[in-house]
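Consider the following input, taken from an annotated entry for Cytosolic beta-glucosidase (Nestor notabilis).
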Amino acid sequence: LPLGFLWGIGSSAYQTEGAWDKDGKGPSIWDAFTHKKGKVFRNETGDSACDGYYKVKDDIQLLKELKVNHYLFSISWPRIMPTGIKTEQVNEKGIQFYNDTINSLLENNIIPIVSLYHWDLPQVLQEKHGGWQNISMIDHFNDYANLCFEKFGDRVKHWITFSDPWAVAVKGYDTGEHAPGLKLGGCGAYKAAHHMIKAHAKVWHSYNDTWRSEQQGMIGISLTSGWGEPIDPHSQTDRDAAERYIQFHLGWFANPIYKGDYPEVMKNYVGRKSAQQGLGTSRLPTFSVQEKTYIKGTSDFLGVGHFTTCYVLQKSFPFLQVPSYHTDYDLAELVDPKWPAPGPKWLYSVPWGFRRLLNFIKTQYGNPLIYVTENGVSEKVQCTQLCDEWRIDYLKGYINEILKALNDGVNVKGYTAWSLLDKFEWNKGFSERYGFYHVDFKNKNKPRYPKASADYYKKIISANGFPSPREVDNWHGEAMDTCSTTHQHLATDSLIAHMEMVTEIVLPTVFTLCILISIVLLIFYLRNHS
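Applying the prediction step yields:
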């Protein structure tokens, strides 16, 4: 890849930090959501997650092992502003935690790329204002962002306003799969997205007007989207459906930022469906002329998250159906059963879709500066799997498509693998694992162990891409050998941890029982002799 290309890896606050109520941190919507039974697989929570709050130095050591150029992580809004409202309280211990993290990264020559929002909204803002349904969130978010620029901006030069706002809007306010768990019937997702887009623009302008000249940083947004390929490329109907797929995912947020308004196809489809449902106005809000001008151009780079591809075809939904984002764009998604799918049902390994997505961005939005902010694959956990051959294949395939996209003239400057650690995967709990490092959650110390993919990725970074095919094959063999050795260490450590647990729990219990039995026998003895 080109000289100066940035290689990195990422994670997010709620998924890894734990310490959910320690050192002055306020509750987030994910704390509230996971503490309700039935919301998350096996009722698991991120209360302690990977204990990342206490293991910063250990995890930075892993980053050094990988030889990454950058680390993408998020700041927990309620950790530094417990109620989400700046005038009410600022938590100095939370600020100190992120200062220490940033300083440690820089001491180890690792660039911090910081997301201001990876889904953990302060619960107080949800309870008092209805979260992203309320326009007041724009000013609260701007206050929070400016506090971050003030405290960390002298050292952080790459800022992301929102990580995957699509998931926040759709899964939080339409399907209810994610916190805050609301099902607002076809209006909630659009309203939440509308306020997030405006909040993003306000923060960009705040940075531009107040901080940029002094701090010389960049501010962008991270949008996650799959690629939709028409099932029949010769069918205009299917090609139109594939276009709608990408516009209702990526275009929903990218179009206002790069062109000033929502995609025409979104306005047409949601407007028509709203009219058919007897509504006087579209469920998709509108931007004023002034807002369009204000929002357009508010991104110094585009963060792109991408995991998979699907085939798309036209599918009409009946008018009487309850309004929903998912029935607004009249299409169905299909997959090829031959595509590899090591993890969840939705995540198939389809590398060629990545190149097409990157080229779409180049063509649609004037070839913006791109950082890939999330790309990776998970496995379903049946047993510990350190020799993750499928992740190596996924990594190789998708990075190779970035190489092709660069040759096409796409302006990609960096790649962030997802993710550093196995971690809490939202409503899936700990059942899916994206980590390049395995975390033994059964061990109270939550030790980290490198998977084969960590060794393989390290070699890609060192070579800045792929040298000869023979050498790449050698990397594969070496990575698999290393993971076998690590597996033995893990087995030994697990046995020791199990023995320690026996020592700590079973022996005191047996000892207590012995004392109780002795007391009972003594009582009987004394009674008999009296």
